[in-house]
Amino acid sequence: MARNVRLLHCTPEDVFRVLENGWLYPLWVVGTSRMRDVGESWPQVGATLHHSFGSWPLLVNDTTIMRVWDPPHRAVLEPHGGPIGVARVAIDVKRRGEGCVVRIQEEPVTGPTRLLPDTVFDAITRWRNAETLHRLAYLAEGGAPGTEGGADAIGHESTAEREPIRR
């Protein structure tokens, strides 16, 4: 199981505001190239994100299912990567002073990645998830568009009355 940890200079609630906006998924998940749809009940347990990974012309349509949603502490996602298989990704957030510590743990559930030696899978996944946490930090610390308190698409401050940005 690959594990990455990062200290973020924001609250756990800021992190979960990013996670709850499914349209932001390709901005923080490395490899995701576009969103196709966000299930109406996202981020509730059982809700689905519809996205793609890769680059044209080698795009693979993928889905991610929310398995655990316990803001502002824990989310467990299950990405279904077509030929790559299914993974389980746990995101745990703990307050630390005025910031928080975010830990991502990822393990293969099905598919050819289960055949890789743990050291190989962990090395590749830790490298990718280090960048994933880096991107998540930018969004959570900076008040991502489409989150309460974040800037909207044209740089104005969002208000609680405004709907999340949906593209």
Explain the layout of strands and helices:
Layout: E1 2-8, H1 12-20, H2 25-28, E2 32-38, E3 48-53, E4 60-70, E5 74-80, E6 87-96, E7 99-108, H3 118-142
Antiparallel strand pairs: 1-7, 2-3, 3-4, 4-5, 5-6, 6-7
Helix pairs in contact: 1-3
Structural features, described:
By secondary structure, the protein is α+β, with helices and mostly antiparallel strands. It has one domain (2-142): 2-Layer Sandwich (Alpha-D-Glucose-1,6-Bisphosphate, Chain A, domain 4). Helix content is 23%, strand content 35%. The chain is built from three helices and seven strands; from the N terminus they run E-H-H-E-E-E-E-E-E-H. The longest helix has 25 residues, at 118-142.
CATH class: Alpha Beta
Structural class: alpha+beta
Report the principal-axis shape: globular
Question: What ranges have pLDDT less than 50 throughout 5 or more consecutive residues?
Answer: 151-167
How many individual β-strands? 7
Reported for the largest beta sheet, the result is: 7 strands, antiparallel
Number of helices, where a helix is a run of at least 4 consecutive DSSP H or I residues = 3
Biased composition (Basic and acidic residues): 154-167
Region (Disordered): 144-167
Protein name: SRPBCC family protein
Organism: Microbacterium galbum
